[in-house]
Design a protein that fits this description.
- With 281 residues, this protein is mainly α.
- It has 2 domains: 162 residues, Leucine-rich Repeat Variant (Alpha Horseshoe), CATH 1.25.10; 111 residues, no CATH class.
- Helices cover 58% and strands 4% of the residues.
- A hairpin with a 3-residue loop joins strand 1 and strand 2.
- Helix 8 packs parallel to helix 10 and helix 12 runs antiparallel to helix 13.
Length: 281
């Protein structure tokens, strides 16, 4: 069986480079085998390879590159978290990036238990995405602990679960900054919070004129990053990521108008995504 051979190769020190051909399609038997090895394995590097294989297997078979297969999700959530190691970190980071919130929601109680026993920043982002209110009491407790009180991911999770003071702070930061780099960082934060208020703020920002510039390298509009942050919450709307002309910006604006009731006070800025700059001498 190719799956067994591939697992044995990784156990013996072979790397994982994104190739899941040994597992064919999403075969329940192969996923069970990966889960068993992940659950019983003690070597952190080997466990991390198994997590990466599961993440790749789930996303590579999905037309939107989303991790939606329930068996794979359950295996990563439950078996990936049995040890507090790099595999667990990779599992949470992978879920935060690739799994849609609605697919994560059913694991809310598990996430709450993990926040109690083995918290990490990736887990907090997963909780935010899942809107796992079961974890809110634990997160509030963590927010008073020196190790976590200033952790950005924990504050994102609290905002996502209804802490209006933190949510308002993040929205205000996004809307008032005049620094392009700060605007893009704030956009990602609001995208991860994913509340209605956060998304409405992002939508209003789609006509921001701010441009980040690295001299003699490139200039970059903040607007694609804002659209990408919205896409975090609408992962099947790939048009939010594809901006090749002003018509693409117009389509995104029309989506914002329909979805969030956005209105505009300023005209759309001249078309720009990223533009190389000639070196200066």
């Amino acid at each position: 069986m190719k799956a067994v051979q591939e697992i044995e190769r990784m156990r013996n020190g072979g790397g994982f480079y994104g190739d899941v051909a040994a597992f064919q399609a999403i075969d329940p038997e192969s996923v069970d085998l990966l889960g068993q090895e992940l659950r019983n394995g003690t070597d952190a590097d080997f466990r991390e390879k198994l997590v990466k294989a599961l993440l790749r297997l789930g996303t590579s078979r999905n037309p939107d590159a989303l991790l939606e297969n329930r068996q794979i999700l359950a295996t990563i959530v439950q078996d990936g978290s049995v040890r507090d190691d790099c595999a667990y970190l990779t599992a949470m980071e992978g879920l935060a990036e690739s799994a849609p919130g609605e697919a994560l929601a059913e694991f809310g109680k598990t996430f709450a238990k993990l926040a109690e026993s083995t918290p990490n920043s990736g887990l907090f982002l997963v909780i935010a995405k899942a809107k796992a209110r079961e974890a809110l009491p634990v997160l509030r407790k963590r927010s008073g602990e020196p190790e976590w009180k200033d952790d950005l991911s924990l504050r994102i999770a609290l905002a996502a679960l209804g802490d209006q003071a933190i949510e308002d702070e993040f929205v205000r930061d996004f809307e008032t900054t005049t620094d392009a780099d700060a605007k893009m960082r704030s956009a990602e934060t609001l995208g991860r919070i994913g509340t209605r208020k956060a998304l409405e703020s992002l939508a209003r920002g789609m006509r921001s004129p701010l441009v980040a510039t690295i001299p003699a390298t490139f200039m970059k509009s903040v607007r694609p990053d804002i659209a990408k942050a919205i896409h975090m919450n609408y992962p099947r709307h790939r048009f939010l990521l594809i901006i090749r002309s002003d018509a693409d910006y117009e389509r995104i604006e029309q989506f914002c108008e329909k979805e969030f009731g956005t209105t505009w006070k300023a005209p759309r800025p001249p078309f720009l995504t990223i533009q190389p700059l000639a070196p200066t001498h």
